[in-house]
Write a structure and sequence with these properties.
single chain; 135 residues; four-stranded antiparallel sheet; 32% helix; binds zinc ion
């Protein structure tokens, strides 16, 4: 159990919305490295696994958001250009909001379902189903 002071401290640090659902939705912070004109997310695979999303899906989103090119290399992702860590974190937050959290109950227990040519975000917690945003 955490003390009230600790919780307050966390609250004041602007905790991302994704971690408000009972604390069991833990997303590892992005380990971003800038090398020359490239940016790496060292724990890319770990992040996509925590979100229960295909690495390729998250990658496609980030490439579009950052308007750059790149590829997944083993457990990490490589991007052309220099992007600061806070920006990458921000983009991942948007991804979580738009492609992971249920729009009804806000829980992360969702999966993407493809039906015909549409993709839906189906919530396993409350059963809600929404058309997923296109990437
Ligand atoms: Zn739900």
């Amino acid at each position: 159990m955490q003390s009230y002071e600790k919780l307050l401290e966390r609250g004041m640090k602007k905790v991302p919305k994704a971690s408000e659902s009972g604390g069991r939705f833990q997303i590892p912070g992005a380990r971003v490295l800038n090398q020359g004109m490239k940016t790496f997310i060292a724990n890319f695979l770990e992040i996509s696994q925590a979100l229960r999303r295909e690495p390729n899906h998250l990658m496609k989103f980030l490439l579009k958001e950052l308007a750059t090119s790149g590829e997944i290399r083993g457990k990490s992702a490589e991007f052309t250009g220099r992007f600061p860590q806070p920006l990458i974190e921000k983009k991942i937050e948007i991804y979580i909001k738009n492609h992971v959290l249920c729009q009804e109950c806000g829980k992360p227990d969702t999966k993407l379902i493809r039906k015909d040519r549409l993709v839906f975000l189906k919530c396993e917690a409350c059963g809600a189903k929404h058309p997923a945003k296109k990437i």
